[in-house]
Amino acid sequence: MTTYHTRFNGVRKHTTMSEPAREQTTVITLDELRPRAEEKKSFSEYFMPPRHPCILFDPQKCTGCGTCEMVCSERNVSKIAPLSASVKVLQDDREGKNFAILCQHCRHPLCLEACPTRAIEKGEDGIVRINKLFCVECGLCTMACPEAAPLRDEKTGGINKCDLCEGEPLCVQHCPENALTFTRGKAFRWIKGLRWTVQAISFLLLVIVFLGTFCYFKVGAVTLACPTGLLQNIASSRTIVLVGASSALALLILTVLAGRVFCGWVCPFGFILDLVGGIIPKKIGWPSFLKSRMIKYGVLAGAVGGSAALGFQAFCTICPIGSLCRSYGVQGVFRGAELAIVPTLASLEIAQRRAWCRYFCPVGAVLGLMANLGLIKIVIGANRCKKFSCQQCADVCPVGIIDRGLLREGVSPKIPMTECIMCMRCVDRCPYGAAKIRFRWQKGVPGIPGETRV
Amino acid sequence: MNIFEHFYNMTIGVVDLAESSFEMLPLEGTILSEKIGGVAVTQALYEHYRDDDPLVLGVGPLTGSYAPAACLLVITFRSPVTGAISHVPMMHRAGPDMKFAGFDVLVVKHRATQPQFLYVTGRTVDIRSADDVIGAEVPEVSRYVRWTMHSARSMLVTGPAADRGLAGAAVVNGLWGSPDKTGLADAMASRNLKGVIFKGIDGLSFGEGHLERSENIIRNLGLHGHSKTSGFVSVLDKMDADEAVRGVMRNYAMRSMACYRCPFPCMGHVTFSYRDVAAGDHDKAEMGVNLSDHVGFAALARRSRDHALALSEQCIRYGLDPVVVAGYLPEDGTAHQLRQAFEDDTFPTDRSGLNAVAPTEDVRYRLGSGIAPIVSDNGWGMRVGLSMILGVCPLFLLMFPGLSAEELLSFISSETHALATLKTKINNANRALLEK
Predict the structure, then answer these.
(1) SS3 B11
(2) What architecture is domain A376-439?
(3) For A348, which of A19, A329, B98, B432 is 20 to 30 Å away at the CA?
(4) Can you name the residues that pair with B86 across neighbouring β-strands?
(5) Among residues B234, B203, B140, B383, which one has the least CA distance to residue A66?
């Protein structure tokens, strides 16, 4: 007898077997048998991410008739056996609500990570499947999935998981109430495309065409000015120039009407941060003592106070937006140390997306105060979405203001408009249509008003 | 060849409560070829076990299949209220779950010494103690069942009203009430049977092409793809409920619910604000109620319009028949009055003297007790009988008279000769049921 070592998913396993058996056995590692999928995201995937097919469930339409379970089980086990289906309709008799447990074919499936035999794979088409050849029915996937979507068949003990019927889900086809909708995912997100275009054009205009000054420029009769610069100007000169004030008002009025769209769509430094943040991986964490979003109001107060004390616009000399406009345009003046400001602050992206905007930007602070008085708001109707497993809105939010904890509890998180940069990534990404732009006075969130009235 | 072999498990479970024993017997093909199924079979088996005064639970051939509204479970027993053999239809998911648990008929004999639950799953019947929940309100019983009988799918339980032997005790199906108006809850309580719980973990193949056939029928009835907004109220309308009854629902949002494979959601969940001034409530409380008993709701609404929803909620909570409650309460009676009567033990134990529609020998109470009187008496009986033999919801058949017996029988056989034979047998069985 010989002690024999095999490697199982990186763990050494000791077995004892007889000599003849040892001679016939070859050691195959799991990595050789089921190599892990490449996780690197290509440059093209960043702009055109792979489709994300899934079935959307509308609890307002579902009556709980169970037809989805019937057709699904018939496909799985060739008979009507609702508990052998890959979809499950749960009924909450107390609340009078139905809830479908359905695989969401997550972008980063936890079931796939949990499977010790790598029987779960995500195909090129975005569908997450269980390869029955490798499945040992351990059930770890059922525990790992936040949606509890891999379902154990109590009759056979096997695991059933939705494979979207290879692109033509029967449950969707046969739902009598049209409560289920199949989406292959968006190949192109128009809001994303539009935002990048606007950001690029704004960058070109502010940095290159208009001779490098966002802070104050004049085109014909139109003058526009940075509101933070104006505050510093007032503080340092102790005079109010009416033209300057009215020029700054334009941006403030825009913010009242449409939120911080400047930050999400126009700001040239924000454009640089989005580019850098999309490319460089996040390797380090953000220090906790810098996690207060109030810091930016301190920076604003410091900028105004410093300007008053020093007699010139103190913050403007180190403002990344101003430096970018002044120093990097083709006709701009390259000025020594100012060149370093943009790359230095952009490098914060290695710790957190839009870290400058979240914690330090005094321009964002002024606009945030105005946005708080604004006419619109972003709402997320947790009643409508698959908040347990999806959370794509929280994934894509560059300023991290969507509370995952509340989503998991099924509560619609309140979006603070002082922080929201109105990039509309959440609206664009949500497959359930649960993230919406609403007027401030509109009550309710998507999913609630859908109840039918008698 | 037995044309029903794909529709049934061909098994009968016989439970002896006195001996806490269970045995499984084959369901003979001969009884099926003669009686088809459902209420005709449960009636025949009741006769067979008559000396044991059983409760017989049975399903029809279409129960659990793709046929529209194939959700029915029939319970046949001797009504302690009328003294006659009574057949109570149970909808929601109980029928399919019993079938998928491996039983076509379940015969429950004798009386248990202690309160018991029957947990029916995986071709076995587990007899479990119900001592812990005697006297508990139905939501509490429901919670207990879900906790102790892991992920149970359907439950027929009695409430504290049956435990105390009050008049008008009714079985509650999940938290949805039931059409039990002939004392099924009393019959269960007298046997110390607290509830029957189902979990169907298996299935049946039924036949090919059923899904397409069913969808054609649903489409022809004009039901496919519509979000039926007011199924519950539609039934009230068909019952010729007066404005007072329909008016109750007008101000509330209703979430429509359907039984197994039913394209017409006739049940609903209503959330409402309620303040019982008589009880000294200062603030309105947010409450929710499941409505599935149209006859019961109409009776409550006629008696006490402003309190009908709260009273409906209490009827489910206590396991009471709303019709009897409507008979007990004075005009504009409140939920507080009912609660007070329940807590003070002043709610009557005898139905006599109650100003209610009392169950009689009327066919409506023998067959399909509590199903809304939507069409004329004779037509009502034939439609309900047909549905209760085939295992389809009687209310669905009453609501959609355009759905013919042939269309339903075509799920069993598409041969003209076999269809004609089936129809004749069903008519005969139906007539026999109505004449008794």
Answers:
(1) strand
(2) 2-Layer Sandwich (3.30)
(3) A329
(4) B77
(5) B203
Pull the structure tokens for residue A86: 């890959």
**Residue A329: pLDDT above 70?**
no
Q: What is the pLDDT of residue A333?
A: 57
Residue with tokens 């616009």: A313
Other beta carbons less than 10 A from residue B114's beta carbon: 12
* Structural tokens at position A16: 């004892």
Interface contact flag, B200 A83, Cβ < 8 Å: yes
> Which residues, in sequence order, are CB contacts of B315 under 8 Å at separation 6+?
B170, B177, B296, B300, B321, B322, B325
Question: How far is B134 from A390, CA to CA, in rounded Å?
Answer: 43
Residue with tokens 């010989």: A2
Residue A453, min C-alpha distance to chain B (Å): 4
Which residue has 């070859």 as its token pair?
A26
ipTM of the assembly?
0.94
Name the H helices within B121-209.
138-148, 160-163, 184-190
Whether residue A355 has pLDDT greater than 80:
yes
**CATH 3.40.50.2300 assigned to B11-205+364-435:** no
Q: A380 with A374: CB under 8 angstroms?
A: no
Report the alpha-carbon distance of residue A214 to residue A325 in Å, rounded. 6
pLDDT per position as a tens digit, B344-365: 999 998 877 675 554 555 666 7
User: Which residues on B lie below 8 Å from A451 (Cβ)?
Assistant: 253-255
What is residue A83's predicted lDDT score, i.e. its pLDDT? 93
Distance (Å) from the C-alpha of residue A61 to the closest C-alpha of chain B?
Answer: 7
Specify the domain boundaries for CATH 3.30.70.20 within chain A: 49-183, 376-439
Scanning A42-169, the segments in alpha helix (DSSP H) are: 43-47, 67-77, 110-114, 140-144
Q: How many helices (H) and strands (E) does chain A have?
A: 20, 14
Residue A33 amino acid letter: L
Q: How many residues are present in chain B?
A: 436
Residue B403 has pLDDT above 60, yes or no: yes
Name the band, by pLDDT with cuts 50, 70 and 90, for residue B248.
Answer: confident
B417 or A333, which is more confident: B417
Task: Report domain extents, chain B.
Answer: 11-205+364-435, 224-343
Cα atoms in the Cβ-side hemisphere of radius 13 Å centred on A79? 17
Q: Which residues pair with A6 in a beta bridge?
A: A13
**Is A105 in contact with A127 (CB distance < 8 Å)?**
yes
B408-422, pLDDT tens digit by residue? 999 998 888 888 999
Under an 8 A CB cutoff, do B260 and A65 touch?
A: yes
Residues of A in contact with B257 (CB under 8 A): 63-64, 91, 96, 98
Q: Are the C-beta atoms of residues B268 and B232 closer than 8 Å to each other? A: yes
Question: What is the number of residues in chain A?
Answer: 454
C-alpha separations of A231 from A237, A364, B54 in Å: 10, 13, 89
Are residues B328 and B352 in contact, defined by beta-carbon separation less than 8 angstroms? no
pLDDT band at B380 (very low <50, low <70, confident <90, very high): confident
Dist CA B175 CA B291 (whole Å): 9
Contacts of A176 in chain B (CB under 8 A): 218, 223-225, 263
- AA letter at B371: I
Q: A49-183: which CATH topology?
A: Alpha-Beta Plaits (3.30.70)
